[in-house]
């Protein structure tokens, strides 16, 4: 048994050294955002009767679907606010961190032949996977301890020590859950791309199950790890059992992953590929055909995922109407835009959120050009009769096409589910018009990615940071009363509240011209620079 | 007109001069060898020729056209095999070959099938499962299946087994017979020796020798093994003799090529029983250049 794990701690130290930048950056960003938000609460939610009324409005199913159930019904003190508004999103961020790190230390290392080199040394068969888990556990414990202690030290009203400890533990255990689940998934798939895809699907599914479950079925919410983690009711009732269940499941995942790692060959997975075709299909004749072929699965997967996202949000619509019918006072309290129902106003937020999630496959598509270069595969084209304009243009076409497909499928899902639960269904055309109003800013983001790839490819992934920022500002901005200038730092801040308001022709034209300029700039840069593979 | 012409090409990466004034000329119908140790600048030079990297200074031209500005036009007539072939793990070998061949827009179905057979490749397997040698075969098949005027091959056989190495050399002979030109960068010196008409040796971003094998041999020493009836007196004092070793009857030494006549004349006084002289191999040349000048 000891042989299986020989030299694990040495490998873990080595893995920590490899991650000496990435892990600290993740931890510091996650913890400091939590602290910054917590510090903003005393100003946002002063004690008084308004707090109780606000707590009631936050029980509206639309909000519950977005951020989770409110357990601080009796007393919406700052601890309850923190757990209600921040726990879910921080847990998702921790989950993303764990998935990315876990894949890169397991299946990606294996795929690139790095584990083979290590395995040839006197190290155990399970040492690599063990070291990855050790490092990730360490990172998650660091997040848990620093979040718990800093929140406790703030000494804000309601942010007591027992609650802070549970809050931190809940974050840490969500991280451990997604780390172990990803390590398990990495045993099953043959490629790191597939491992990433499956792990993120698990995260997405957890979010959706929780959204539907929180609104309409407690059992459904309990199946989702994210739903389960909200059941800790930190700062209110402080239940530890969800943390223990998550830990138990994680241990099960680890044992299973080790078992599978033992019985499989290095480089092999359990979901294997069947022999492929001996000749290329007719469409595979240029970079565009290849770009489409390479991203086929990604595109189909995301289209399906976005449709389900729309359906989940749409299914909440019926509940919203019922909620407001049951309490007239709340309807009056919420500032409404004249002539629109609250459901319609909720649509505004939904369209923005769906657009931002739809940005992910759009950016993946254009950034693929950079990862192809990193893996020395663009030289196959550039050494043949393919110009750089054609090459980058192909990836731009795929990215732009997805940018049009994404709002279409998510809005379609929203409308389909919405019209089945609502007395007066929303107008599909009206919804589509709203969804497509975001296209100019999506194109600006594509342009920004193109400029990064054209001039400083090493920093191309910074576009994700910007999307993360946008998500934070747009999704939580209203709730956290973030200042307006923070909205204006992202192109999304220049889109009015569609579909209630319309994006004027002039504004649309200006945004589109900016997008075109950025894209042309990116192409010009890519034409001029050295290509490294 | 020269097929490839590089004049004083300089490439800097930051402060590092990867290429420091390279001159290289490949004439039509020539098989040109390009040798040098790891990190000497072979791949950088090739990437500049392919218009993937932009030269910091100097001129690089193929078919008389500028390698950077007219890359696409040039590449219609160029076939390239990279040193490290990275392919898409989820596409099959067959699919990749077809894609590469189609990018050139001249498809020769029979040639493709014939080459797949000769290189013994299973085109239905996904590239992710191929070994280094098999990935190289994919690139070689795609290159030889296209009717190019110029073949640029960057260490194309480093992962091939001896049988496949043979097939590769046959393919090069066929290309030569068809009057095409080849730039072959390689570590396998016997391969370069057998195939190439002329060659250049690059070291630390500079071309340090250029010429035919014959010309280069004159720059170095011939190995001699001799047995004589009488012991040879004071051989080490003769000018041009190096690395003298005496194993009983047998005497081994190397001699500067321009001094060989004088040395043989001197030895013949001691009644030669047998004499073996071997011209320097490329390996000797190579080691001579790198060892003597401090690698």
Describe the overall structure.
The complex is a heterodimer of chains A (533) and B (295). With 533 residues, chain A is mostly helical. Chain A has a domain of 218 residues. Chain A contains 24 helices and no strands. The longest helix of chain A has 34 residues. Chain A is globular. The model of chain A has no long low-confidence stretch (mean pLDDT 90). By secondary structure, chain B is an alpha/beta fold. Chain B has two domains: 213 residues, P-loop containing nucleotide triphosphate hydrolases (Rossmann fold, 3-Layer(aba) Sandwich); 59 residues, Alpha-Beta Plaits. Helix content of chain B is 32%, strand content 31%. Chain B is elongated and about 70 Å long. The model of chain B has no long low-confidence stretch (mean pLDDT 88). The interface between A and B is large, with 35 and 39 residues.
């Amino acid at each position: 048994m000891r042989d299986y794990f020989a030299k694990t701690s040495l490998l873990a130290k080595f893995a920590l050294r490899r991650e000496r930048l990435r892990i600290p950056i993740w931890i510091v960003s996650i913890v400091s955002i939590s602290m910054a938000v917590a510090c903003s609460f005393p100003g946002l939610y002063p004690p008084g009767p308004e707090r109780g009324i606000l707590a009631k409005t936050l029980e509206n199913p639309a909000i519950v679907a977005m951020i989770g159930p409110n357990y601080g019904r009796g007393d919406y003190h700052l601890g309850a606010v923190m757990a209600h508004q921040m726990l879910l999103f921080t847990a998702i961020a921790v989950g993303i961190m764990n998935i990315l790190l876990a894949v890169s230390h397991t299946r990606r290392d294996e795929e690139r032949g790095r584990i083979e080199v290590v395995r040839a040394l006197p190290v155990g068969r399970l040492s690599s996977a063990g070291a990855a888990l050790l490092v990730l556990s360490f990172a998650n414990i660091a997040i848990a301890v620093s979040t718990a202690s800093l929140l406790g030290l703030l000494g804000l009203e309601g942010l007591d020590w027992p609650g802070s400890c549970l809050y931190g533990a809940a974050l840490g255990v969500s991280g451990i859950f997604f780390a172990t689940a990803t390590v398990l998934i990495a045993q099953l798939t043959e490629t790191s791309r597939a491992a990433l895809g499956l792990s993120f699907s698990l995260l997405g599914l957890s979010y959706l199950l929780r959204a539907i479950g929180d609104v309409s079925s407690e059992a459904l919410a309990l199946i989702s790890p994210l739903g389960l983690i909200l059941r800790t009711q930190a700062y209110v009732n402080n239940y530890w059992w969800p943390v223990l269940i998550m830990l138990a499941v994680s241990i099960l995942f680890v044992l299973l992953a080790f078992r599978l790692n033992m019985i499989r060959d290095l480089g092999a997975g359990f979901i294997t590929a069947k022999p492929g075709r001996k000749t290329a299909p007719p469409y595979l004749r240029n970079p565009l055909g290849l770009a489409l072929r390479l991203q086929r699965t990604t595109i189909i997967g995301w289209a399906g995922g976005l449709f389900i996202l729309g359906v989940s949000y749409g299914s909440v619509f019926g509940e919203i109407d019922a909620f407001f019918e049951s309490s007239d006072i709340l309807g009056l309290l919420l500032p409404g835009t004249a002539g629109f129902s609250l459901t319609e106003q909720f649509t505004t937020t939904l369209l923005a959120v769906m657009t931002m999630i739809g940005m992910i496959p759009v950016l993946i598509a254009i950034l693929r050009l950079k990862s192809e270069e990193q893996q020395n595969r663009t030289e196959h084209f550039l050494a043949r009769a393919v110009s750089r304009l054609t090459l980058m243009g192909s990836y731009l076409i795929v990215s732009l096409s997805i940018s049009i497909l994404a709002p279409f499928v998510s809005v379609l899902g929203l409308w389909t589910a919405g019209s089945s639960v609502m007395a007066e269904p929303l107008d599909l055309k009206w919804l589509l018009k709203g969804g497509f109003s975001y296209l100019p800013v999506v194109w600006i983001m594509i342009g920004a990615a193109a400029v990064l790839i054209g001039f400083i490819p090493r920093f191309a992934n910074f576009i994700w940071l910007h999307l993360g920022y946008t998500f934070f500002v747009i999704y939580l901005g209203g709730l956290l009363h973030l200042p307006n200038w923070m909205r204006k730092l992202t192109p999304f801040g220049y889109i009015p509240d569609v579909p209630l308001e319309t994006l004027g022709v002039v504004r649309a034209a200006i945004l589109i011209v900016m997008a075109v300029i950025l894209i042309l700039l990116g192409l010009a840069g890519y034409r001029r620079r050295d290509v490294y593979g | 007109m020269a097929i490839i012409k590089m004049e004083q090409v300089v490439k800097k990466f930051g402060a590092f001069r990867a290429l420091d004034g390279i001159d290289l000329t490949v004439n039509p119908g020539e098989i040109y060898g390009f040798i040098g140790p790891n990190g000497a600048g072979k791949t950088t030079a090739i990437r500049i020729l392919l218009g993937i990297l932009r030269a910091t200074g100097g001129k690089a031209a193929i078919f008389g056209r500028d390698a950077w500005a007219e890359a696409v036009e040039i590449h219609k007539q160029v076939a390239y095999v990279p040193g490290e072939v990275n392919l898409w793990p989820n596409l099959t070998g067959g699919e990749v070959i077809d894609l590469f061949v189609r990018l050139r827009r001249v498809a020769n179905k029979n040639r493709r099938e014939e080459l797949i057979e000769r290189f013994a490749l299973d085109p239905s397997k996904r590239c992710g499962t191929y070994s280094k040698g098999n990935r190289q075969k994919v690139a070689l098949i795609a290159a030889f299946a296209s009717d190019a005027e110029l073949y640029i091959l960057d260490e194309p056989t480093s992962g091939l087994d001896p049988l496949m190495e043979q097939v590769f050399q046959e393919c090069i002979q066929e290309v030569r017979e068809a009057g095409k030109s080849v730039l072959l960068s390689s570590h396998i010196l016997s391969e370069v020796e057998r195939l190439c008409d002329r060659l250049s040796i690059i070291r630390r971003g500079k071309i340090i020798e250029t010429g035919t094998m014959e010309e280069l041999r004159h720059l170095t020493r011939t190995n001699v093994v001799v047995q004589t009836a009488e012991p040879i007196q004071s051989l080490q004092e003769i000018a041009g003799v190096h690395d003298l070793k005496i194993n009983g009857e047998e005497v081994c030494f190397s001699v500067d090529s321009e001094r060989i006549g004088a040395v043989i004349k001197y030895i013949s006084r001691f009644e030669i029983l047998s004499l073996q002289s071997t011209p320097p191999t490329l390996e000797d040349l190579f080691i001579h250049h790198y060892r003597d000048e401090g690698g």
